[in-house]
Design goal:
Blueprint (H helix, E strand, L loop, with lengths): L4 E2 L21 H4 L27 E2 L8 E2 L10 E2 L8 H12 L3 H6 L6 H13 L4 E12 L2 E11 L6 E13 L2 E4 L15 E7 L5 E2 L11 E8 L7 H12 L3 H10 L6 E6 L1 H12 L5 E7 L7 H4 L2 E2 L4 H5 L10 E2 L2 H5 L1 H5 L3 E7 L5 E8 L6 H10 L6 E7 L5 E7 L21 H10 L13 E4 L2 E4 L13 H6 L3 H7 L5 H10 L23 H8 L9 H13 L24 H16 L13 E9 L8 E9 L2 E9 L7 H12 L1
Parallel strand pairs: 4-5
Antiparallel strand pairs: 1-10, 2-3, 5-6, 6-7, 7-8, 9-16, 11-12, 11-13, 14-15, 16-17, 18-19, 18-24, 20-21, 22-23, 23-24
Helix pairs in contact: 5-6, 12-20, 13-16, 13-19, 15-17
């Protein structure tokens, strides 16, 4: 069985925003408290000398998220104020307005405008609540005056609550003289430039659909099963708070988070709040039927079921306790793996949300997008690996990582009846001449010159072993430069060069590529071994990737990542490092790395790896071939180990012909990835 993914479509999570003004309410615990001033009731008066930095007290705002104490600090720094001689300065009015607004004294701020009404109080208090802001900073900028009119510039920085994102923008305030002072000319554009009456801000978060686990034949491991979708039509709710409280009681979710989601959504559309598997729905159905305004619909999709639960694990959604334990906020459409591969590959399968700050009409239509943070529906590299393997006549696998981090981007395998299967993570195979990346690094570290002429004989006896080239290497001449030996993966040349190395040289180089280091994946993995290097013949075998040398395809993908980035990184299965105790290692100097890059580039431009030289970006690589199991079986492994851009990868095939190659499979993978 193997891991492969395919997108299931997209869910859109609810807007975390109020529909009209400051719609959020205190939590149930807070509503039971007595006394205390209402937020927004301060007088907004400020004092202190001109241009003084003022830090204001912490306030508790009534935002759409429950129990968020917002610390509001204003740094009012005037870049410059231009006013005529004898004219009263607009600066004190601007400073007082910004301080009152940021401090949550919305009534005091409204009193400094030309409107003075409750609508200004509601607009100032409500707009940032619609963004679920957990923090707001305002800084005063340049002010210009022209007679009885003035223009003030300010900068705003908004912390977008549990998303951890920060939105910054530049604002403009227009003022007019009123007696001996100034008033802010009110319009919604005071809050955000371009905002109009009847419009609102919203932070729109969209969750991608969870990708599927597929078996080696490309069939989903999750069968189609029932999903019960619990939701509401917000505009039809007589009391949204009562509905949110009841749903929280039934599910254990936070009532404030549910309430904030409900009041954020457009009135007329159906708002999904929960996706439940049949067993959970049956357990909650009686309680759910009693909740006013709740709607339950049923659909069929590949989400909760699996044909291999012990391997793949299971999936939970919005009310999964694991989400709460991890401190994750409630967000409709969220899925989480509860065990097995679903948990291990959580981020790869679930993707990340897209968040936008938008201007919406009263009907919920997006008028404009003010800021966007794009998410991800999962790695496209996995799909390219899947398609590259589809329909191959022989067993094969592709493993891809991000060279600079060790993040596993793709793990795919293809099986064929009657042939041994390829295990991308746990397989222990001789890599053949692909291992010359490692032995060349050992030679370079010992001072070897890659321009040295090294013969490529058809047979070379070393240390009591007879080395030959499989497949045969021809047309290199009697004294080809080492660069040609490497490009054509000449085993006999490397067998002879191994006499310049000892066991410590080869072991040190292998460790620099992570081979033999004790990293471990949550789903298992083979860390590679050189075996016994006690004799000259054993060292020669290791130099050509044979004998007792064993690696997994993942080992060699990580090795290619070293040549790409200069540093070995432990493999990361998306959610966490496989072994937190292992730090990245930089074992080779820049000269060794650059020489390896040049050799691997020539191998795909003029050598045996040429079929992999596709795409607009340069490809680097090395090929290899070795027996699988006993030589009598006739099965050989064929490798391409390389990288393009920041993606390092291995393509490996098992075949019985000694003339096969994995370079065409590598080219297919890269071509599909580019498209």
């Amino acid at each position: 069985m193997m891991l492969r993914t395919r997108s299931r479509g997209a869910h859109a999570a609810a807007h975390r925003a109020s529909r009209t003004g400051p719609a959020a309410r205190p939590s149930r615990a807070a509503r039971q408290e007595k006394g205390g001033p209402e937020p927004g009731s301060g007088n907004g008066q400020v004092g202190g000398p001109r241009l003084k930095t003022v830090r204001l007290r912490s306030l508790r705002l009534r935002g759409t998220r429950a129990r968020l104490a917002v610390v509001l600090a204003v740094v009012a720094v005037v870049v410059g104020v231009t006013a005529g001689v004898g004219e009263p300065s607009a600066e004190p009015a601007v400073q007082a307005f910004l301080l009152a607004w940021e401090n949550g004294n919305y009534r005091a701020a409204a009193a400094l405008t030309t409107e003075r009404g409750a609508s200004v109080t509601a607009a100032l208090g409500g707009m940032y609540q619609q963004l679920d802001a957990s923090g707001l900073q305002l800084a005063m900028g340049r002010i210009t005056q022209d007679g009885t009119a003035a223009t003030a510039h300010f900068s705003a920085s908004v912390d977008l609550g549990s998303s951890g994102l920060r939105w910054s923008y530049q604002g403009v305030i227009h003022l007019r003289q009123a007696g001996s002072g100034w008033k802010v000319v009110w319009s919604p554009s005071v809050i955000v430039p371009g905002l109009r009456a009847g419009q609102r801000l919203a932070a729109v978060t969209t969750m991608p659909g969870r990708a599927l686990l597929l078996d080696s034949a490309g069939a989903p491991l999750a069968p189609v099963s029932d999903v019960y979708v619990v939701g509401v039509r917000p505009g039809q709710l007589a009391d949204p708070a009562r509905t949110a409280d009841a749903l929280a009681d039934a599910t254990g979710l936070d009532d404030q988070e549910i309430y904030g989601t409900i009041v954020a959504a457009p009135d007329s559309s159906f708002l999904p709040l929960l996706n439940l598997p049949p067993a959970t729905y049956r357990r909650l159905s009686t309680a759910l039927r009693r909740i006013p305004g709740l709607i339950v619909t049923q659909r069929r999709e590949r989400l909760f079921g699996t044909i291999a639960p012990l391997v793949t694990g299971s999936v939970g959604t919005e009310m999964a306790p694991l989400l709460r334990a991890d401190g994750m906020p409630y967000r409709p459409g969220t899925t989480i793996g509860l065990a097995g591969l679903q948990m291990t590959f959580q981020r790869l399968l679930a993707g990340t949300p897209t968040t936008e700050v938008v201007v919406q009409s009263a009907a919920g239509r997006v008028v404009s997008v003010l800021r966007s943070w794009p998410g991800s529906a999962g790695s496209p590299v996995q799909g390219a690996a899947d398609r590259a393997l589809a329909g191959l006549p022989d067993p094969a696998a592709v493993v891809a990582i991000r060279a600079g981090t060790g993040q596993v981007l793709a793990v795919a395998a293809h099986s064929v009846t009657g042939m041994p299967a390829v295990s991308p993570l746990t397989g222990a195979y001789a890599p053949g001449q692909a291992f010359t990346i490692v032995s060349t690094a050992a030679l370079l570290a010992a001072g070897f010159n890659i321009r040295s002429p090294i013969p490529c004989e058809s047979v070379n006896p070393v240390g009591g072993f007879r080395f030959a080239n499989v497949p045969p290497v021809t047309d290199l001449g009697t004294q080809p430069p080492f660069t040609d030996d490497f490009a054509d993966a000449c085993s006999t040349a490397f067998a002879g060069l191994s006499m310049q190395l000892d066991a410590a040289d080869l072991t040190s180089a292998a460790n620099g590529f992570g081979i033999g280091l004790r990293w471990q994946l949550p789903v298992g993995g083979f860390v590679g071994t050189l075996g016994d290097l006690a004799s000259t013949g054993a060292i020669a075998e290791a130099a050509v990737g044979d004998g007792s040398v064993r690696v997994s395809p993942l080992d060699m993908a990580l090795a290619a990542g070293v040549v790409d980035s200069g540093t070995w990184h432990p493999p990361v299965l998306v959610t966490s490092p496989a072994d937190p105790g292992l730090a990245p290692r930089t074992a080779f100097g820049a000269q060794v790395v650059s020489s390896l890059q040049a050799l691997m580039r020539q191998a795909v431009t003029r050598g045996a790896g040429k079929p992999a030289n596709v795409g607009s970006e340069p490809v680097y690589g090395q090929v290899g071939s070795a027996s699988v199991g006993s030589a009598a079986s006739g099965v050989r492994s064929f490798w391409f180990v390389g990288y393009q851009g920041n993606i390092a990868f291995v393509a490996i095939e098992f075949a019985k012909s000694p003339y096969a190659s994995a370079a065409p499979l590598a080219g297919t993978f890269l071509r599909d990835l580019a498209s």
